[in-house]
């Protein structure tokens, strides 16, 4: 027994394919454009509504293109359409997303814009555009002298400078002289006292 399978446009346009299929055959459903149908303006394909006997009959199954049905009677494959989604307008914002090589602005839908490679013209270790930390800043040239041999140590003043030695010797000499005068004075007083007793 042979049965007719008819692809119907519903709200769309096109005459639709008509096939004669043997009963019990497993039929792979076509896409709407393969079946000769055109989507109505502002609509996109939603599903195939499978019906027997009449296109106005009750829906027996809802199928997608590529799925299969078993033909057991005259079958109407009715295209069901739905509203096309509103056009998405990307909003990438000003926040930078980064990886090791690049930076970019990203929409919530993950679409990227302003993709560029990191650059560090001022050698501060950060990308000049997005501030991504590229490396540790090289400060080895700061404060270097004599061809780059840096030295931050300060020599401690020596205590053996001529001026210090002179001052120290001067102080010692004064101490010795005062001590000698004191000794002479004591001896003189003792001698005078003894002479008085005699």
Span between N and C termini? Answer: 173 Å
The count of helical stretches stands at 1
Structural class per helix/strand content? Answer: alpha+beta
Number of strands: 10
Task: Give the CA-based shape.
Answer: rod-shaped
Order of strands in the sheet with most strands: 2-1-7-4-5
Q: Largest beta sheet, briefly?
A: 5 strands, mixed
Can you write the helix and strand succession as a string? EEEEEEEEEEH
Could you write a compact summary of the structure shown?
With 198 residues, the protein is an alpha+beta fold. The protein has one helix spanning 162-197; strands spanning 2-8, 18-22, 26-28, 43-52, 61-63, 68-70, 75-83, 96-98, 102-106, 112-117. The strands form 3 sheets. Strands 2-1-7-4-5 form a 5-stranded mixed beta sheet, with no helix packed on it. Strands 8-9-10 form a 3-stranded antiparallel beta sheet, with no helix packed on it.
What does this structure look like?
The structure is a single chain. It contains one helix and ten strands, in the order E-E-E-E-E-E-E-E-E-E-H. The protein has one helix at residues 162-197, and strands spanning 2-8, 18-22, 26-28, 43-52, 61-63, 68-70, 75-83, 96-98, 102-106, 112-117. Strands 2-1-7-4-5 form a five-stranded mixed sheet, with no helix packed on it. It has a three-stranded antiparallel sheet with strand order 8-9-10, with no helix packed on it. A two-stranded antiparallel ribbon has the order 3-6. The longest helix is centred in the C-terminal third of the chain and has 36 residues, at 162-197. It is rod-shaped and about 85 Å long. 10% of the residues are buried. The model is unreliable at 140-182 and 190-198 (pLDDT under 50).
